[in-house]
Amino acid sequence: MTTDDILEADWFQQARTLSTAEVSDALDALNLPGSALGIRPIAGPARLFGLAFTVRFAPIDRFNPGTVGDFIDTLAPGTVAVLDNGGRMDCTVWGGILSRLAAHKKLGGTVIHGVCRDTAEADESGYPLYANGRFMRTGKDRVQVEAYEQPVMLADVRVCPGDLIVGDADGIVVVPRLRMKEVLTKALTTREVEEKILQAALEGMPLNDARKKFKYHTLQRSTASELGA
């Protein structure tokens, strides 16, 4: 399935309303990883949903120094820039010019395994920015781009180009591209059942009975559990 096919699919459009908790539960049910520990909203709207463009950084090569990256001009609207700086907290790989330009280009947001700076400019631009934290010191002459569009890490989660990145106030989850439709469909189905349970409980049915009626515990059971693993 091409990127255009994914972006135009009904299930993908419906999934834009899912929370990270709903997606995380679906990943668990399918025995998949994806919850990026320690990555949190730093600036701009605490909502993000888009396909990943990955960038991996490395310490500066003193004999053949590179740059911190001029990739932003190549990215299509809605793309999420995923930057892996190895979780470094001592220097940044994203600042105010990039936030303002990314907002102008209507990118989906930026997620960093590391820190960012100039967060006030991301707030002013309404640009979603997630990271391990914030710190003002530049990455110039400290780190350089090592690779574009290669697998990277967000905390303990592997991210490949084209994977889905979902963010809200609770953090970031990553959905593998090859399992995207399965995961999102599972999350949407679970939401429907949970809404029926809630409605039944609000109408007076004991919560335990409502959960049994709609087979909630079976719905939440992981694939591994169903197989007796």
UniProtKB/TrEMBL annotation:
InterPro entries: RraA/RraA-like, RraA/RraA-like_sf. It comes from the Bacteria. This is Putative 4-hydroxy-4-methyl-2-oxoglutarate aldolase. It comes from Limnohabitans radicicola. Pfam families: RraA-like (PF03737). CDD domains: RraA_family. One of its GO terms (molecular function) is metal ion binding. Substrate binds at G95, G96, I97, L98, R117. Mg(2+) binds at D118. Keywords: Magnesium, Metal-binding. Its cofactor is Mg(2+); a divalent metal cation.
